[in-house]
Specification:
Strand content: 25-35%
Number of helices: 6
Helix content: 25-40%
Number of strands: 17
Radius of gyration: 32 Å
Structural class: alpha+beta
Length: 430
Amino acid sequence: MDIFPPAGYIPTASTIEGIEVYQPAPAEPAVEAGVTDFVCPQCGATTAYSVAEGGLKCSHCGYYEAAQATVVGKAAEQLEFTVETLEKASAAEKHGWGEERQEIECQNCGACTAIPLGSLTHTCPFCGSNKVIQRQASQDMLRPRYLIPFRVDTAACQQIVARWLSSSWMTPSALRRLASLKAFVPVYLPFWAFHAVTKATWSAEVGHTVTERHYSPSQKRWVTRIKTVWRRESGSVRLNIDDVLVEGTSKLSALLLGQIKNFDLRGLVSYEAKFLAGMHARAYDVPLEAAWATGRERMRERTRLACRQQASSSQIRNFGMSLDFSDETWRYILLPVYVAAYTYQNDLFQVFVNGQNGAIAGQRPVDWGKVWLAIAALLSPGVLLSLIGLVTLLLGGVGVIVSGIGFILLAIGVGIAIWLYSQATQMDDA
């Protein structure tokens, strides 16, 4: 006896009366093992990770559940950097976030951010644009093994930024309202952490300054001359370089991230999806091999500096180094960062706050009106006294002293004004 509909098929509309038509049933979406939903067991509302309390909390009924994560710190497992290990990592390592998440792709800056399922946000945290495409987050990427939980809560973040914005008088007064916008988004950012032992041998010509005295027949006296004497030196260096952090994303300012990268990796804990509940996160877009090339270059530079420091003088030429790497290992981790993007006079600015220790880095526009007024105030006394001195000098008065004081003040004012202008330019170009 035939069974209808056949297995794997479902009924569909038929244009002929009395004839039943079937079509293949749509494939059910695969659900990865270990994917969890964060639903309050008391009231059914969605729970989120509370930075202040260090666990899941329901904002509806107050239910609290501590995150059961093991602090591993520096003992966090590292994987060898070999072809075999990379192939095993791709095949055997866990993938995805461990929970169903959505993803928003910004059409303005290109950043892709994983957000909690059902989140109502439609704004890119990195540039503030609302031109985003929302879709199901990919579960193909390697799953992080470790992360550092957020320790700085939003209230503390607001205070840190308020102090930072008020630390420079060169910023526009209206900019200080940024601290009260509550626009700081907690985001877990991807990083690759590398370890290696470097062994190097080096050789170079090292210069030493010596003073010589000799008799000059033409001058009929003893004279002193200074010259550099070069001699060849060599040596060897062995460095055990640990936890070189390489950004796992190319979409954010490496300069700003570098300024807040002083994370204490002793705070690493085993990855749990609970820490991401209610939080934003970014998957890596810089693959492991490319990140390792960057990490190797940084290790090479650190080793080269150690070799040069062995030389008996800082005057070095024809430097050469032979370098070998061994015990190369890596870890994929998430680190906590608060991100704020704001627009001032049609220009985009970013602020990053280290979610573990509160270190801050960001871009601040310069109020050039304030700067030019300050420069004018610095130059005015010198210019005024110089003019008075010149006038009194032409009229037969004692303008020499007044002019001299004026020129001294003017020279001091010019020096401070140049320094002030350079500081403002650096802030404006950050």
